[in-house]
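Pilot study result, target chain (140 residues):
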Amino acid sequence: MALVTPLADSSYSYPLFGVFWTILEIFLWAIWFWILIMVFIDIFRSHDLSGWGKALWFLFVLIIPLVGVLVYLIVRGGSMHERAAEQAQRQDAAFRSYVQETASASPAGSADQLAKLADLRDRGVISAEEFTREKAKILA
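Predicted structure:
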C-alpha cells in the first residue's frame, strides 16, 4: 500500500523564522561588504600613510578580513570620519566654485552684461569702440 501525502506536506516548507533569519543574514553580509569596501577606500585615501603602510594595511585586511577590519577600525576608525568629512568638504567647495563660474559665464549673464553696455553706450558714458571691445570680451 502506497503512502499518499498531501501536496503541501511534500513540497518545500520554509518556516517564517527561517525567512527572517535569511533576511538577517543577507543584511549582515551587505553591511560586512560595505564596511570592508569603506576600509579599503579609507586605506587608499589616507594621506598620512606611506605607500608601505597602505600596502601592509591592505594585505592585513585582505588576508585576515575580520580581524584586519576590526583592528583597522580600532586603530584608525576615529580619523576615518575626519578624512571622509574633509573629502566631502573639498567636493562641496569644488562643486560650489564650478556652479559660480558657470552661473557667471551663463548666456543669461552675458545678455545682462550686453544690455548694460548698450545702455551705457546709448547714454554716452562709453564710446562705440569701448562697447565693441567689451562686447568681444563678453562673447569670447
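One observation from the pilot: The chain has a mean pLDDT of 83. A full batch analysis is planned for the follow-on phase.
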